[in-house]
Structure formats: C-alpha cells, structure tokens
Amino acid sequence: KNKQDLADFAVAGPLVGMISSILALCYGLVLTATADAATVQTFPGLPLAILRQSSLGGGLIDLILGNGVLNVPASAEAAQALASTLIALHPLAVAGFISLV
Question: What are the helix and strand counts (H, E) for the chain?
Fold first, then answer.
C-alpha cells in the first residue's frame, strides 16, 4: 500500500460519520417540523445555548425549522433566556446534533 491509499482510508471514516450525522439531524428536524403539538411535548429539549454552539448544526436547525427558532432577544435578560430556553427536538435530531458537536 502507498501513502495515498492510507490517506484515503483515514479520511473515509470521519467523512462517513459527518455525513451520517448531518442526515440524521436533517431527518430528525423534518420529523420535528411535521409532528403535531401533542407529540412535540414528549420530545426532549436541548438548551438554546447548546444549540447555538455549532454553526453547522444551528444553521441546519434554523434552515429547516425556520421562524428564528435560535434567535435570542436583544435585552438585558438575553443571557437568562439563552440559559433557560429549551428547544424540543425529535430524538433523532438530538442524536444527529450531538454527534456533530
């Protein structure tokens, strides 16, 4: 084997992991967006502060769920709102997001 083959093999694992994490996150977000209100109440919630830590994950959440879900009001209580606000997500979306971080 040469070094190029080893480099290709070394890159394949993390690349497949990142792609599968993005797919799980996107599909989980679609399931979150299409769920009825009673079902969303049973979903686990992630703090807004955690969701805003990942640019890729946060961008996908904002793109699919829309409506400024990750926006924080520009006020003195913004830090408190950032710490206490929970966003309900389908468990598949939570798994996809955590695997990206």
Answer: 6, 2
Provide φ and ψ at 45, rounded to 5°. Answer: -110, 140
pLDDT per position as a tens digit, 4-23 = 888 888 888 899 999 999 99
**CA 74 – CA 77 distance, rounded (Å):** 8
CB proximity list for 40: less than 8 A, separation 6 or greater: 32, 88
Query: What is the rounded CA–CA span in Å between residue 29 and residue 90?
Result: 7
Q: How far apart are CA 64 and CA 47, in angstroms?
A: 18
Whether the full predicted model's pTM is greater than 0.85, yes or no, is no
Helix axes 91-100, 3-34, angle to 10 degrees: 150
Check pLDDT > 60 for residue 76: no
